[in-house]
Amino acid sequence: MDYRKKDIRNALLFISPWIIGFLVFTLYPILSSLYYSFCEYKVIKAPVFIGLRNYINLFGDKSYLAALGNTVYMLIFGVPVTTVTAVAVSILLNNKHLHHAGIFKVVFFIPTLVPTIVACFLWIWMFQSGGIVNTVLGYFGISGPAWLSSITYAKPAFIFYMIWTIGNAVIIYLAGLQDIDPNLYEAAEIDGAGFIRQTMSITIPLLRSTILYNMVTLIIGVFQWFAEPLIITEGGPGNATLFYSLYLYQNAFRFFKMGYACAMGWVLLVISLAIILVLFKVFKFGEAEN
Amino acid sequence: MKKRKIKYDSIEYSPSVIARKVVMYAILTLISVAFVAPIAFMFLGSFKMTKELARVPFKWMPDSFNFTNFKAVFEKIPFFLYLKNTLIIVFFNMIGSLVSNSLVAYGFSRIKWPGRDKVFILVIVTMILPFQITMVPLYLMFNKWGWIGTFLPLTFTCFFGYPFYIFLIRQFLIGLPAELSESAKIDGAGEFRIFWQLTLPLAKPVLATVAIFAFMKSWNDYIGPLIFLSDQKLYTLSLAASMLKSNLDPQWTVLLALGSMMVMPVLILFFVLQKYFIQGVTMSGIKG
């Protein structure tokens, strides 16, 4: 194919905002972040090269290991629970016998519209010891814990937050579900397959790539999570809700250890890329689709 | 949503189907109540008095609907200043996102050039880069430029493309027929005119989606203002809310009133423009 010179010039002009933005606001910061990660940098003094010391120090830093542990906890418990809830809700909403799917869809989407700070207020208020959550639990004769000041129950309160904000994922799952050929279900019904069987053998396998996409989004989200824990618990009690990016933020803007924070950023990047690659392998993405 | 009903009419009313339907509605209603409860609680709570809010056992409805808490918001913080600051940032986010991303997306879809699709993969890859990795160097860079404590880090940067929006608009433009620009080119129209007069008017739906996303992102943002706006005079509503909360004795009724005031515009916008919200989210999922 031959290209017209004029087209190339025009194309460059059209994408020039992105080129500038990429160079100045993405590439340069990433490279300097890599450089700073090998430096001691406390803002007031110029960066001093210290080699791998930041990275080595990470492994002896109890708070860092706690933050990593808490994040892994969310990956092991929060991500699957949230994913299963979102898929289950979407399958229900996609059911052919449901006549008010539109209203329910709106209900599940609304929480994603709430500003972070407001959602956090609600969480603090609802999950305090005499809050609504415990009041409702009380109706069933359960006396709930003081969620956010309990080392055991603070993280589950955050998992509920993850579940509450599944709206985007539900919309994406619904789009995926509508692409599944209804004839498949009809054939399965004739063969005598029940609802559960149909879900496990048709819906889930064909929804694979959508599930993968949403899980990747969720995992990246967990690693980048810091506004919520910062506002709701500031990482406490103890270090129970000190998540990865919150600790990174604290190092950068509270302790002014910029180099150390950059090292944490690079470890974060490598870990999230590794997880994404593994997930792609597990879901055998692109292989034998349909 | 399309309903595929006709085929199933014969089994629509069998007892097992009805039983299943009851279970389904019960589960969905229960979860829905749990999803709406926090927001309902906020709106109702913003009319309550402090004592009322803390009352045991908990009561949903306020004793009376009075606006004391809303008045208190205006007394405790310079609400209109913070609203103005927020709107300035929102405005530039929307304008910047629309202008820059439609230009860039056009360059990635309507013009043929060598290596185009490879460069576009680079755009996609930058989408998964965590903000945390650029956050510190960006802060240091803006600090050096004297931009910390100004709106510039949150407004100026919007004019240089945002990968997710580039992706959304490109997906839309690439679906338009090639003849659209070819015949115009034969008539001697320049590329920019084709972009401005022929392509953009057709892209209105996706531009509406991007505008809404940009609005939501900047209206709801907490992290950006927290890091870059050090001057209290420049605070946004989100920062003001967080400041009000960190008072020694945060008055929850007032916080709930402020929260209601921040959620209300977004909810109204959502109900008016629902189609574009859902469309945008759906499009974001089909890149796999």
Q: In percent, how helical is the residue content of chain B?
A: 55-70%
Shape annotation of chain A: globular
Radius of gyration of chain B: 24 Å
Mean pLDDT of chain A: 89
- What is the 3D shape of chain B? globular
The largest interface is:
A-B, 97 and 98 residues
In CATH, the homologous superfamily of the largest domain in chain B goes by the name MetI-like
Mean model confidence by pLDDT of chain B: 87
CATH superfamily of chain A: MetI-like
CATH class descriptor of the largest domain in chain B: Mainly Alpha
- Round the Cα radius of gyration of chain A to an integer and report it: 23 Å
Secondary structure: number of strands of chain A: 2
Helical proportion of chain A, percent range = 55-70%
**CATH arch. level architecture of the largest domain in chain B:** Orthogonal Bundle
Order of helices and strands of chain A: HEEHHHHHHHHHHHHH
Quaternary form: heterodimer
Share of residues in strands of chain B = under 5%
In the CATH hierarchy, the third-tier topology of chain A is known as MetI-like fold
| Series of H and E elements of chain B | HHHHHHHHHHHHHHH
* Structure class of chain B: mainly alpha
